[in-house]
Amino acid sequence: MATTTYVNKRTRHRWRLLALMMTALFFAFGSFWLVQVMRGEAQGPNVNVGNDPDYIIDNFSFVRMSETGQPRYVISGERLTHRPNDNTSDIDKPVVQSMSTDHPSMTMTADKAHVNQDQNQIDLSGNVDISRPGSKTSDPLRIRTEALTVLPDEEISKTDKPIQMTLGHASATGVGMVANNATQQLTLGGRGRIVYPPRGQR
């Protein structure tokens, strides 16, 4: 009788050990399968990860610094929506202002802006308005157009759309423009005209 009890206890012990081993094996294979699924979701060629916003900021202001630690330009707006998949941002009512101390600052406003942070490019659209105050060496400048590409680090603004410009008391229209605020040079495209006031009004 005692021998039978001992055998039964050993059998029960073996079954418990086997059950534990099967459970561990199940969890091991389960973990391996989960890792493979996660890798497939992250690396699979046919997986669409989407481009939903990862953050939205209202009434924001962003300051870009130069290599010497001085403010280079400021971007502000009513709302910024960032999308992580392509590292771009959409801005409502953007304001872009250069902060250079070497020449007059330039301020740009629009209805919308699309910012590509990887390429450091800002695309303004809708009622684009550019203004630069006058100085001892330059007349006040104002330009209006419907679309403008801004390269802030190079201080270059360009468009292939029609523009209306006033420089001091003179005015000009054209299709296409490239403005370099660092060199104070501005080039107009074709099919335009320039109007100078009489000498007495300049």
From TrEMBL:
Keywords: Cell inner membrane, Cell membrane, Membrane, Transmembrane, Transmembrane helix
Key word Nucleus present: no
Transmembrane segments: 17-35
Record Gene3D superfamilies: Lipopolysaccharide (LPS) transport protein A like domain (2.60.450.10)
Family matches, as Pfam families: LptC (PF06835)
InterPro entries on file: LipoPS_assembly_LptC-rel, LPS_export_LptC, LptC
Entry annotated with the keyword Transferase: no
NCBIfam families documented for this protein: LptC_YrbK (TIGR04409)
Protein name, per record: LPS export ABC transporter periplasmic protein LptC
Organism listed in the record: Massilia aerilata
